[in-house]
Amino acid sequence: MTSRKIVINFPKDLIDRPIVYKLIKEYDLEFNILKASITPDSEGIMVLELMGDKKKIDDGIKYLKDQGVKIESLSKDIKVNWDKCIQCGACVSICPTEALYISDRKTMKVDFDAEKCIACELCIRPCPPRAIEVHYTT
Ligand code: SF4
Ligand code: SF4
């Protein structure tokens, strides 16, 4: 099971069609709607998290594109807001890639190496002051 976040932008004539529903029925995918809106010129924009088998996600995305839906992948970056961080170290033991690490053993200063981060989000919840943030970009 894998997941992928996408932004889908569909034209007026597709708004009433159950294209997203077909992703569940025919491609065996689960999804979360993270955001949905209809713009003034009646285009629909939806941010979806698709979950399921990788190949089925690819096939489902191909199906959407074949229907005339524009798709953009949403990538995410993890950032630490150092103004909020209280240097408690709770994230360090949780991070599977050592992207969050102790950079100074004497002061136990916590640091972040973005190159090592795989954006798994395991560190988000355990951070008491919510100093770790997810930023999405297309
Ligand atoms: S998102 Fe995952 S890999 Fe990145 S810093 Fe947090 S726990 Fe580590
Ligand atoms: S858990 Fe949050 S507050 Fe604690 S060291 Fe990590 S980023 Fe800083």
TrEMBL record:
Protein name: (Fe-S)-binding protein
Stored SMART domains: NIL
Ranges of residues in domain 4Fe-4S ferredoxin-type: 76-105, 108-137
Spans through the membrane: none
Key word Transport present: yes
Lineage: superkingdom: Bacteria
GO MF annotation terms: 4 iron, 4 sulfur cluster binding; metal ion binding
Pfam family, one: Fer4_21
Annotated keywords: 4Fe-4S, Electron transport, Iron, Iron-sulfur, Metal-binding, Repeat, Transport
Organism per entry: candidate division WOR-1 bacterium RIFOXYB2_FULL_37_13
